[in-house]
Amino acid sequence: MNPKGVLLKKNGYRYNIHRMAYINRDARKVFSIEAIEDHPVEWLSARMAERNTGDWQFHFTEPPSPAVVRDFVAELDGGAAG
Fold it and tell me: Residue 16: enclosing H or E segment and its boundaries?
């Protein structure tokens, strides 16, 4: 497994194949595959370490639209991540 994959797994992130994103429900953070691939492992580690204020945090290459955020939140707050 590559260093980013190890870091994600070690920190409780699970891959959601339908959303093409890594999700951690406890941390309330979502990382798109594109953002993970486009940034170095140091960026990923720093984003994981950031304090969360309680709302879902989305780390994408481009900011997700409000509709995408609503869909994610509805799924995440009501169903399984993987």
Answer: strand 14-16
Q: Closest Cα partner for 47 from 62, 66, 28?
A: 28
Distance from the Cα of residue 30 to its chain's centroid? 2
Burial 50-72 (b: 16+ CB within 10 A, else e): eeeeeebbbbbeeebeeeebeeb
Record the pTM: 0.89
Task: Give tens-digit pLDDT for 22-58.
Answer: 999 999 999 999 999 999 999 999 999 999 988 999 9
Q: Residue 70 corresponds to which tokens in the numbers above?
A: 């609503």
